[in-house]
Amino acid sequence: MRITVFGTGYVGLVQGAILAEVGHDVLCVDVDQAKVDGLKAGRIPIYEPGLEDIVKRNHAAGRLSFTTDAAEGVAHGPVQFIAVGTPPDEDGSADLKYVLAVATTIAEHMAEAKVIIDKSTVPVGTADKVRDRVAEVLEGRGSDLRFDVVSNPEFLKEGAAVADCMRPDRIVIGTDSPEAEELLREVYAPFNRNHDKMIVMDVRSAELTKYAANCMLATKISFMNEIAGLAERLGADVEAVRLGIGSDPRIGYHFIYPGAGYGGSCFPKDVKALIQTARGIGFDPKVLQAVEDRNDAQKEVIFAKIARHYGGDLKGRVFALWGLSFKPNTDDMREAAARVLMEALWEAGASVQAYDPEAMEETQRIYGDRDGLTLVGTKEAALKGADALVILTEWQVFRAPDFDLIAERLKAPVIFDGRNLYDPARMEKRGFSYYAIGRGR
Ligand code: UGA
Questions:
Q1: Strand pairing of 25-29 and 64-67?
Q2: Of 268, 297, 326, which residue sits at a domain end?
Q3: Average predicted confidence (pLDDT) for the chain
Q4: 201, 233, 248 - which closes a domain
Q5: Active site annotation includes 28
Q6: What global pTM score does this model have?
Q7: In a designed cystine with 354, which of 49, 162, 248, 321 is the match (CB 3.0 to 4.6 A)?
Q8: Does one domain contain both 414 and 330?
């Protein structure tokens, strides 16, 4: 099938690439000329395991092309995915200007019936807005071409995007049109074998499903972070509690890891956006607000432990920082706990020697050459002469380090672990002052 994808960000690029991988003829459209040129030359703008191979292979095979020409994108075929960004507005609600701009473009150029699919995470009611926009532009053109607007949210995780897209656990389709449903069944047939993963529902429910999924996961994390705070103060160990509750299949072991707070481009943005949606209709989102408040507070927890350890005296101190990205296997720094911590340390007059397996360039791009930040090439180099080690991302390479070397290189054996990577009792035996989340101190 001939498929167009507007937007070559995380969602659009991965989606386009895997649709080409299964044999569809995919054209990706982006307004960013440099990005499109890069993609044509095999340069992938994000770090995502497996993506580069798939993009290069399918581009070489002629099944995956890139263009900035929107008219060409619209003419390419009947299936038009909208996968452009929805950055948060000042008040946290999702800004739909890019989504609606694509809707306008499709309506301006279409010369045959189209199925327009919202793939971006968009607030409930967006499909109606897209429909109204397309209808308005078509009317202006004096055209009565048929079109459908479908909601088809994406559930991929950064760092596992290709695998998630190739083997989705569900394919949510929001539509009231049997023809559009049939077309999407064809698009997704290669991913829908063994058992039917398509869950078809009305458009608004599909839109809300996406937010409900992310907000439920964010809630689990904030809940566990709250329990961690309680465990610390009650003399309990949150890791034992985690094991104890996860064994109940109704709770499960997924997404109950306490830590330095959730980050990324999705949870913080989507929780905020659903709060705004609720407020906008006069509904008080008490649970969602608590989830957000807990997360904001959680990002301060490691700093508070550091300040307490040094009796508030942080001026001139140097901290080794392992982990900058908001989670492992990505170079994404959006809403990362590391940013909140570094900024608090700088504010307090301390400096940071940081290492991350993938996010060094991104950190450089965000902070440039600023006082108080030294980016180093290895995790060992970060330790040299530092007062303490702080860990904020659970990259595999941080899980079993040489503790003797850490103790030797630091001024004193002190570790602040925002991801609970090590066993507190063993760390004590090794002679470390070890601070984790919800475990003792
Ligand atoms: C999230 C969802 O997991 C995806 O299903 C969804 O499709 C995606 O958002 C999206 O809307 O596009 P992602 O943001 O890539 O995916 O990252 P997650 O793996 O969900 O992690 C989010 C944050 O939660 C990270 O900062 C992570 O460290 C934190 N986290 C996760 C915890 O603190 N504890 C946990 O137990 C799990």
A1: parallel
A2: 297
A3: 96
A4: 201
A5: no
A6: 0.94
A7: 321
A8: yes
